[in-house]
Design brief:
This protein is α/β, with parallel strands linked by helices. It folds into 2 domains: about 160 residues, Leucine Aminopeptidase, subunit E, domain 1, CATH 3.40.220.10; about 325 residues, 3-Layer(aba) Sandwich (Aminopeptidase). The strands form 4 sheets. Strands 7, 8, 9, 10, 11, 14, 15, 16 and 18 form a 9-stranded mixed β-sheet that branches.
């Protein structure tokens, strides 16, 4: 699909087979653009509004057919009250517009971003970027394994119409950034949707190497099973020992600047059966997305390299399957982590925190100023927050605030939960330093508190994305069913804010 920026009249050059999308704020009169188009189309918009067939309520939409040769189709798009509009609402609205138009079989549409800007305080660049992201994210489809694609409908062109004074490098840059970020999210979605017989730890290495091949500032190194074992990664190797797939401890070093790095750690369990503590069979096929944290790190680092952000970033992906076998780790086993701390394995389905413990300890070798880990870590997070927000845990109030700021800008919601010392008793072991689960009460908190023990005094944040990484319900405005690519946009905005707060 091609996204263009043009300076032209709304009444010119749209033509047959295309749709003009007109955003309308609930309770407001027609915009100047709406008046212009309505007059050219014999008052069809005014008649629709007067008949109460369209109000502008958020995400409502009405497709009108006109007698105007250059404007055969108009999609009225509800943006809700102007005082409540945000970039994320714009992203959602454009997602609805794009999927609605695709379903009609039409392949091109036009929209004027500045019409939205005039009614809000949002910059034209932020509006344009949100529009581009909303379109590309909403139109995502995974058809790799469908042999009959004849009926696949696609949008081929989106054109943003701006006044000559707005057609600046800033608008073009906003389009590019929107494309880069959305494409990285969709890359992460692809990786999470690939079946586990394809997306193995070895395949994740190949994906990391593709980044390095495309960007000279990226270097990739991989620790094999024997090397990880020799280093003392007893927790990571313990999880991996039940699988025939060779584990890969992947380190991606982006050197866009010198100095202490940001370390991004992503849980990369390419399939999670639960191990000996095996999961129920219902929905187990979805456990291919248990590497969503690693996919988010890959996506964020791809965008950082494309934008040439002047930062040092280290991405760490401890990649393995978690399988039951004659070699698998047992409940009751004790492993020694890279940090030297010992862990009693109570439940082999609490494997993500074991992998992350060694990954966080390994990250300390780079003397990072910040560590952020992302993981589909606990079902308890979904119980607590549903599918609307990531759980946020941090040992540093400043870092917590920075992540919340990025959350507000991207619409990837986070909600902070406590790490009080009183919870620590739940993960004390009678026979080791720690145990890998503290039982059902406060399950997300005790998992995060477990990880906190390995970050030492470095500013650290943990994002539990278990509830938001996979959409198993009805399609959302810009999240179709399946993998959401959760965390990519949040990480990118956090990194961008480090450069320009």
């Amino acid at each position: 699909m091609e996204i263009k920026v043009k300076s032209q009249s709304l009444l010119k050059g749209i033509g047959p087979g295309a749709v003009l999308v007109l955003g309308h704020f609930e309770g407001d009169g027609l915009s100047a653009e709406g008046v212009q188009v309505d007059k050219a189309c014999d008052g069809i918009i005014r008649k629709t509004l007067d008949a109460n067939l369209f109000s502008g309520k958020f995400l409502t939409h009405t497709l009108l057919q006109t007698n105007h040769a250059s404007l055969p189709h108009i999609l009225l798009l509800g943006l809700g009250p102007a005082r409540e509009i945000t970039p994320n609402k714009i992203r959602q609205a454009l997602g609805i517009a794009a999927t609605t138009i695709r379903e009609t079989g039409l392949s091109r549409f036009f929209i004027a971003p500045h019409a939205v800007r005039l009614a809000t305080r949002i910059s034209i660049s932020d509006i344009v970027q949100a529009m581009v992201e909303g379109v590309l994210l909403a139109l995502y489809q995974f058809n790799l394994y469908k042999t009959d694609r004849k009926e696949t409908k696609e949008i081929k062109e989106v054109c943003l119409i701006v006044p000559p004074k707005d057609k600046t490098a800033g608008v073009e840059r906003a389009v590019l950034q929107g494309e880069q970020i959305a494409n990285a999210v969709n890359m992460a979605r692809d990786l999470c949707t690939l079946p586990a017989n394809v997306l193995t730890p070895t395949r994740l290495v190949e994906e990391a190497n593709r980044l390095a091949d495309a960007h000279p500032a990226i270097r990739v190194s991989v620790l094999e099973r024997a090397e990880a074992q020799q280093l003392g990664m007893g927790a990571f190797v313990g999880v991996a020992q039940g699988s025939n797939e060779p584990p890969k401890f992947i380190v991606i070093d982006y050197q866009g600047a010198r100095g202490k790095p940001v370390a991004l750690v992503g849980k990369s369990v390419t399939f999670d059966t639960g191990g000996i503590s095996i999961k129920p069979s219902e929905n187990m096929e979805q456990m291919k997305y248990d590497m969503s944290g690693g996919a988010a790190v890959l996506g964020a680092m791809k965008v950082a390299a494309q934008m040439q952000l002047p930062l040092h970033i280290v991405g760490i992906l401890p990649a393995t399957d978690n399988m039951p076998s004659g070699h698998a780790i047992h409940p009751g086993d004790i492993v020694t982590t890279l940090s030297g701390k010992t862990v009693e394995v109570i439940n082999t389905d609490a494997e993500g925190r074991l992998c992350l413990a060694d990954a966080i300890t390994y990250a300390l070798r780079y003397k990072p100023h910040t560590i952020i880990d992302l993981a589909t870590l606990t079902g308890a997070c979904t119980v607590a927050l549903g599918h609307q927000a990531m759980a946020l845990f941090s040992n540093d109030p400043k870092l917590e605030g920075e992540i919340q700021k990025a959350s507000e800008a991207t619409g990837e919601r986070v909600w902070p939960l406590p790490l009080w010392d009183e919870y620590f008793d739940q993960i004390k072991s009678d026979v080791a330093d720690l145990k890998n689960t503290g039982g059902r009460p406060a399950g997300s908190i005790t998992a995060a508190l477990f990880l906190k023990q390995f970050a030492k005094d470095v500013a650290w944040a943990h994002l539990d994305i278990a509830g938001v990484a996979w959409n198993s319900g009805k399609p959302q405005p810009y999240n179709p069913k399946g993998s959401t690519g959760a965390g990519v946009r949040l990480l990118v905005r956090y990194l961008m804010n480090l450069v320009k707060p």
